[in-house]
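FAQ

Q: What does a record look like?
A: Structure on top, sequence underneath. For example:
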């Protein structure tokens, strides 16, 4: 028996979606819908579950705007943390502690 590849994983996800729709379930495939070894293969070839669903064409790709928004949020958090550390150091130097 050959090992599954990327194309096999895409077919698994797409097939499961079709099966769910045929049974009246209007939802995306979930990890629980697959055997453990299938989940491992899907994630190994296609990445985290949401990215795997995107690769299979079952889910809209996340928007670039959201990615940039998240990056900017992390930058602001780092700046605030840096500023807090600097002000902590200044108060210790002044003997306020």
């Amino acid at each position: 028996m050959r090992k599954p590849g990327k194309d096999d994983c895409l077919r698994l996800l797409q097939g499961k979606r079709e099966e769910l729709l045929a049974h009246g379930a209007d939802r995306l495939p979930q990890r629980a819908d697959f055997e453990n070894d299938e989940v491992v293969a899907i994630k190994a070839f296609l990445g985290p579950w949401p990215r795997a669903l995107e690769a299979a064409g079952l889910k809209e790709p996340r928007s670039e705007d959201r990615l940039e928004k998240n990056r900017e949020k992390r930058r602001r958090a780092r700046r605030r943390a840096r500023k807090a550390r600097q002000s902590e150091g200044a108060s210790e130097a002044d003997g306020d502690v």
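Q: Is there anything notable about this one?
A: The chain has a mean pLDDT of 90.
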